[in-house]
Write a structure and sequence with these properties.
It is a single chain. This protein has one helix at residues 15-25. The protein is built from 1 helix and no strands. The radius of gyration is 16 Å and the shape is flat. By secondary structure, the chain is mainly α. The chain has one domain (1-65).
């Protein structure tokens, strides 16, 4: 679902995969003026918390937020 005016962060394993995803949704002419691509380094030894869907609050994914 697209929500005009709602910002998001999309991540991918590498830049070429991220650009392939962008190409599916935009042409270069339609790419937003404020579009940015940055590199985020996530260390291999970072701790991860896996959240079980049943532990989420009721209507956690309702729109509008």
């Amino acid at each position: 679902m697209e929500s005009p005016g709602v910002e998001l962060i999309y991540t991918a394993a590498n830049r070429s995969l991220a650009m392939a995803e962008v190409a599916v949704h935009f042409t270069l002419a339609a790419l937003p003026d404020d579009y940015m691509m940055i590199t985020i380094h996530v260390p291999d030894n970072i701790s991860v918390i896996k959240i079980q869907p049943k532990k989420l609050p009721k209507e956690w994914n309702a729109f509008p937020h």
